[in-house]
Amino acid sequence: MRFDRLPLVLLISTALLTATALSLLMGAGQTVDWLPAGTPRQSAPVKLPQALRPLPSQALALTWQQSMFSPQRRPDLITGKGQGSLDGIRLTGVIITGQAQWVLLRMPGKHTLKLAVGSTLDNGWTLTGASPQHATFSHQGQTRELRLPLLRLPPPSKAPLITLPDVPTP
To answer: Superkingdom of the source (predicted)?
Structure first.
């Protein structure tokens, strides 16, 4: 009787796999051999990061003169005396960097103005405080607050959904 090579290879492979499975079931390979304990190494000393010091206004002045993202940007316009109220003035932005605080205002003449806390508008109102959402102005004992506009999504459309015509398949 002559054996072919393929059944013999399959028989030997089955026997080896069975022997491996039995040895694993009996507990082979379940012991752990640890290396001997070494001496602990010294870690590098922890150095706290240095606090950034606030930049002086002169260092930030160039940013207000020319923006790197908008080459057409020009310095704020100088306006004449206003009517003494905040009517028509809108708050468009608030910038807070460390101790420095500025607000960006849209004036009634459609030009924008950058104002630092403590500065006074041409109409006499003084910027007394700024937070990320609003700016506080005071004038002759009165206090007014301008808030950033809260942008909202438009209401959902009431138009019916688009439907495809019912066309039978060919």
So the answer is: Bacteria
Percent of the chain past pLDDT 90, that is, above it, reads: 27
Residue type, 82: G
Q: How far apart are CA 106 and CA 116, in angstroms?
A: 15
pLDDT in tens, 93-129: 999 888 889 999 998 887 889 999 999 998 889 999 9
Give one DSSP letter per residue of 44-108, joined into a string. PPP-PPPPPPPPPHHHHHHHHH--SS-TT--PPPP-----SS-TT-EEEEEEEETTEEEEEEE-T
Nearest-angstrom CA–CA distance, 134 and 96: 12
Angle 66-72-76 from CA coordinates, rounded to 5°: 60
- Non-local CB neighbours of 78 within 8 Å, separated by 6+ positions: none
From residue 24, alpha-carbon distances to 13, 15, 52 in Å are: 17, 14, 61
Instruction: Enter the pTM of the model.
Output: 0.43
Amino acid at 132: P
CA-CA distance, 42 to 133, in Å (whole number)? 49
Q: Could you tell me the two tokens for 44?
A: 């590098």
Q: 3-class DSSP state for residue 16?
A: helix
- As a whole number of angstroms, the longest Cα–Cα distance in the chain is 119
What torsion, rounded to 10 degrees, do the Cα atoms 53, 57, 59, 60 define? 100
